[in-house]
Design a protein that fits this description.
The structure is a single chain. By secondary structure, the chain is of the alpha/beta class. It has helices at about 25-35, 50, 55-60, 75-85, 125-140, 140-155, 175-190, 200-205, 220-235, and strands spanning about 5-10, 35-40, 65, 160-165, 195-200, 215, 220.
Length: about 240
């Protein structure tokens, strides 16, 4: 049997942000499977997916792991306004996310050596409004529709490759956590339900407990280990959250 050859595309957690690459779920996963990571790209935005999916054609991996949505699903109105502006062509599409990748844009991302600002207050009406705007973006915005078409086409063109999707990761701020949970639901329904597609809901696996986080928005070593074992279960066909 061929050893797994894995391509990983995702947010800053793919590169082990705050825990180190050697402690990332990507590195732990390759060790558990005695497999090889043949391609890895961190800080991937959904709108940039078509460019990064070329790795699948180039490497012809046995498995592709995608962890998407942390950047896009945030309780930050600033982040949502930037996405709306980009969809309307008001912001250059080549602009990259902040260095921390998965944290909300704006002042809340300045964590090194500085006291953290208060997390987003949970505001029901605000979350509902942002959720509606997110859904409209994903369904109607040209960039998101193009990315979803490219992703679904890639899965169709590689029926022998297993595509495993990780939902946006949980975080401690309740408002951001709610948006990421909703984002997982929305993303799952935008991905074609093909036989080679599997879904791992990180919100069922990891609860927003302080022991799982390096900071309010990023997972720690313990959480990365849990993710690696769960992904290994998917690859071996024993996962509880398949399809």
């Amino acid at each position: 049997m061929k050893h797994p050859e894995i391509v990983l595309l995702g947010g800053c957690h793919v590169a082990g942000y705050l825990v180190g690459q050697e402690n990332s779920f990507a590195t732990k996963l390759s060790g558990l499977l005695s497999g090889t990571i043949v391609g890895q790209v961190a800080r991937v935005r959904v709108v940039d997916l078509p460019e990064h999916l070329k790795l699948v054609e180039e490497k012809q991996p046995t498995h592709v792991v995608l962890q998407l949505g942390n950047h896009e699903f945030s309780a930050s109105l600033h982040t949502m306004l930037r996405q709306l502006a980009r969809a309307l062509g008001r912001v250059p599409a080549t602009r990259k996310p902040t260095a921390s990748g998965d944290a909300p844009a704006g002042p809340a991302t300045s964590t090194k050596g500085q006291p953290l600002p208060p997390p987003h207050r949970f505001d029901g009406p605000r979350i509902v409004m942002l959720s509606i705007l997110s859904a409209l973006l994903w369904v109607f915005a040209k960039q998101f529709r193009r990315s979803m078409r490219a992703l679904n086409a890639c899965m169709l063109q590689h029926p022998g490759t297993t595509f495993i999707f990780l939902s946006p990761f949980p975080c401690q701020p309740a408002a951001d956590n709610a948006m990421r949970d909703f984002g997982g639901w929305l993303l799952r329904h935008r991905i074609a339900a093909l036989p080679n597609r599997y879904w791992l809901d990180s919100h069922q696996l990891l609860h927003p407990d302080r022991e799982l986080f390096s900071d309010p928005w990023h997972l720690n070593d313990q959480a990365h280990t849990a993710l690696a074992y769960s992904l290994a279960g998917v690859l071996h066909g024993n996962a509880a959250y398949a399809h």
